[in-house]
Amino acid sequence: MSTATPIPVRSPLPGALSGATAVLVGGSSGIGLAAAVLLRSVGARVVLVGRDPDRLEAAVAQVRSSGPAGDPDDAVLGVAGDGGDEQTLADAFDRAGQVDHVYVTAGGISGAGPLTALSADDIRTTLGSGPLRTVFAAARAAATRLPAGGSLTFSSGILVVRPYPGMTVPLAAGGAVETLTRALAVELAPARVRVNTVRYGRIDTPLLRSLPGLDSDDAVAAAGASVPLGRFGTAEEAAATAVFLMANNNVTGQVITVDGGETLV
Ligand SMILES: NC(=O)c1ccc[n+]([C@@H]2O[C@H](COP(=O)([O-])OP(=O)(O)OC[C@H]3O[C@@H](n4cnc5c(N)ncnc54)[C@H](OP(=O)(O)O)[C@@H]3O)[C@@H](O)[C@H]2O)c1
Questions:
Q1: Beta-strand (E) ranges in 13-104?
Q2: How many Å lie between the centroid of ligand 1 and the Cα of residue 24?
Q3: Which end of the chain is more exposed for a tag (fewer CB within 10 A), N or C?
């Protein structure tokens, strides 16, 4: 894996991603879907991975329709399956042919509850089958396939540093993603592959709107007023940070927060 050649110097602006290919694990909704649209807008090819085939098909159609007319069909691909399943990721890499960047936004909230109300099995299941399983599967798929200058970007949330009760297990998993980011960054640096994480505050996505009391524009605006900058983030704002991390060949092992200032107060 070691190479004496330094990581390539190229423009760190998103336009440098033109012609690159990104696998978006969780690309059928929310932040991952927004990343797909942004990446297509700068000329990158995208491969979306998600479990629900209907949701995935709709997302592929949405990304295609946002791109230039006459886009080749393979500019936007969908691979249905669980991102924690190594075979699904192998299929996604094979369909892509060549992959430069991987962004994992697959996840959600699972395993919440007071520790004393959780069984040992609940804990094992959350740690073994939740977002951690997906980031490890993505890391294992990417580690041997990404070229020099390639990147892996993961997702975490600000509750990792501002926890509240009843979240021990999901936040232990989220914290592990951030630690994995640094550990993997040094391990993959000899291959000139970078690893980073975007840590989100509350971002207005279908996941956020599935939470109790947040199912309307008015409710989201009212709840967002408590954020220092006065609103929740948009999926595009969150995704743009991942696009920055893909493009910038001098950033690795970092966790970048996009939260409208939520962690400051
Ligand atoms: N939105 C927020 O406020 C916020 C805050 C902090 C952290 N986050 C984290 O940011 C990430 C993205 O959140 P989001 O708001 O964009 O969520 P979202 O709108 O629910 O999108 C998540 C996407 O991931 C896919 N997915 C989930 N599990 C998967 C799996 N095992 N394999 C493949 N695809 C999977 C979902 O599709 P299928 O269900 O069809 O597979 C969906 O396309 C999540 O990890 C979330 O926990 C979000």
A1: 21-25, 45-50, 76-80, 101-104
A2: 11
A3: C
Number of domains the chain contains: 1
| Ligand 1, atom 37, residue with closest C-alpha | 50
Residue 236: closest CA among 190, 200, 197, 183:
200
Closest ligand 1 atom to 156 CA:
7
Span from the CA of 82 to the centroid of ligand 1 (angstroms): 12
Q: Is residue 7 part of a domain?
A: no
226 belongs to a structural domain: yes
Q: Is the pLDDT of residue 68 over 80?
A: no
> pLDDT tens for residues 171-185?
999 999 999 999 999
Nearest CA-CA partner of 257 in 215, 201, 175: 201
Give the residue numbers spanning the domain of 99: 14-257
Q: Would residue 263 count as lying in a domain?
A: no
- Give CA 24 to chain center in angstroms: 7
- The CATH number assigned to the domain holding 237 equals 3.40.50.720
Q: Is 185 in the pocket of ligand 1 (CB under 6 A)?
A: no
